[in-house]
Amino acid sequence: MSSLSNKRILLGITGGIAAYKSAELTRLFVKAGAEVRVAMTEAATEFITALTMQALSGNRVQLDLLDPEAEAAMGHIELARWADLVLIAPATADFLAKMAHAQADDILSTLVLAASVPIAVAPAMNQAMWADAGTQANLEILRQRKYHVFGPADGDQACGDVGPGRMMEPAQLLESCADMFESGLLAGQKIVITGGPTREALDPVRYISNHSSGKMAYALATEAVAAGASVVLISGPVNLQTPAGVTRIDVVTAQEMLDATLANVIDADVFIGVAAVVDYRPQQVATDKIKKSSDTMQLKLVKNPDIITAVADLENRPLVVGFAAETSNITENGREKLLKKKLDLLFANNAADTFNSDSICVTAISTDTETELPAGNKHVVARNMLQLIADRLVKNEKT
Ligand code: C5P
């Protein structure tokens, strides 16, 4: 279920008896690693309390369209922008009718109109209401507008009837949502990623290193697996969990990172160098701890191998993608690196904004293009990066 990890699910609950299942659904989303925010119609609160949903999602529940407190922090527009997916579960016949006619008179219907991400509904109603020609006509409109319709299931109903109209079970809804993130964009592709810092020892207790949390590389690895790729992540020392489905190789020095890269990149389709590799290492590593004696000391450093250049120089090279964390003239310096290291694509960013942060703002640079990607959470940005990489793979195949 790795495709739901770090996804932002906006769960809308409308007023039907199946609303009690939304609690279990939220629990399953959170367990799968998703972040959940809940918005409820007034009628929904008659069936399940906002407090229950707040406790399970870990976030304040949005109930009112005009909520002064919410508007200051995350109003309906911000909430719509925040989400990767909007799921209305349960969706009553009344709410489906509202959606079909683009009404926006409460928090949830307004969110639906404001959202530009995929929207799914899980209808739940009495079987006769489901069969009604008006409901079916509304459904047809929603399908034409590319809303996803999950269910309903067939069976016993709370009102005593039997037939179609039951909300899909939470576990099935979870699967359907996970499927939406499994884009298959990079199906069958092997991607090798370097991430995190390297460390170069001075003596048994000291080392030279770079600032790097590894978060960008790990987000790319997670999203590449969700897009169907097989991923090898060659990681310097970081404090992060291995993403599900990723083969992780731990290294410490630049030389170890180079060796692991060259051993794994032979049959790769894409190499992404995200690692903050130490450019120079001490010429000599002292066997004993260096003692404090004189007021100054000199270190002799020698150049480390440039891993990404080594990959770019291979005869059968994969698509080579680099990063450049710059402190000034970000795009100019990025472009210079792209050309010098013979990269296919480079993502340049401001070093000061990035360290240890969960969000990032990058400019994608190739020899003939320059595009600023929308700033945001590293996982969302990673998906945009992978889209550009997939576009490039298709383009290369055609030429
Ligand atoms: O450190 P620099 O700004 O040159 O990094 C640019 C790109 O080169 C990054 O993608 C980084 O991972 C890669 N690099 C490398 N080996 C090095 C230095 C940098 O692969 N020794």
Keywords:
five-stranded parallel beta sheet, Rossmann fold, 21 strands, alpha/beta, 15 helices, binds cytidine-5'-monophosphate, elongated, 399 residues
Could you characterize the architecture of this molecule?
The protein is of the alpha/beta class and 399 residues long. It is 36% helix and 24% strand. The radius of gyration is 25 Å and the shape is elongated. The mean pLDDT is 92. Cytidine-5'-monophosphate binds at residues 194, 254, 273-275, 277, 279, 304, 306-308, 322-324, 337.
Q: Quick recap of the structure?
A:
36% of the residues lie in helices and 24% in strands. It has 399 residues and is α/β, with parallel strands linked by helices.
User: Strands of the biggest beta sheet: in what spatial order?
Assistant: 12-11-8-13-16-17-19-20
Number of DSSP strand runs: 21
Helix count from the secondary structure assignment:
15
Helix/strand class: alpha/beta
Radius of gyration: 25 Å
Strand portion, in percent? 15-25%
Distinct small molecules: cytidine-5'-monophosphate
In CATH, what is the class of the largest domain? Alpha Beta
Major β-sheet profile = 8 strands, mixed
